[in-house]
Amino acid sequence: MKRSRDAASVTSLPQAPKVEADSRTRRYLISMSIRMVCFALTLFVTPYGWYTWVFAIAAAVLPYIAVVGANAGSDSTVTRAESPQQALDAPSVAPDVESDRPTIIRIAEHGRTSES
After folding, report:
1. Helix 50-71 to helix 17-44 angle, to the nearest 10 degrees?
2. Model's pTM, two decimal places?
3. What SS3 class is residue 44?
4. Which of 28, 38, 74, 112 could form a disulfide with 59 if both were Cys (CB 3.0 to 4.6 A apart)?
5. Residue ranges of the domains in the chain?
6. Residue 62: CB atoms within 10 Å
7. Alpha-carbon dihedral of residues 87, 88, 90, 95, nearest 10 degrees?
8. Phi, psi at 106, each rounded to 5°
């Protein structure tokens, strides 16, 4: 019976916390910059008209949108859980025991005695 499993993939891991925090900070700063531009346009664009109200409403609503966007996780993709076990097919012939014998390395540590 042959089983097919996907090997674990590093690309299926979520973003690093620092990268995610940097991304959220960047989105917040962009939103707040747009808010400041809308606020300035509300004050300095004359003659006042319907677009003045659009700028004023945008300047009032954008902080809420910026905070919600900054607090929301940036990774909206669903990561699929993968088995860490690799799918290797069993060899069709038994391997030669003598040729596959591992080399044994022994390491001995000798402790130092302190002389007082």
Report:
1. 170
2. 0.53
3. helix
4. 38
5. 13-71
6. 20
7. -160
8. -110, 130
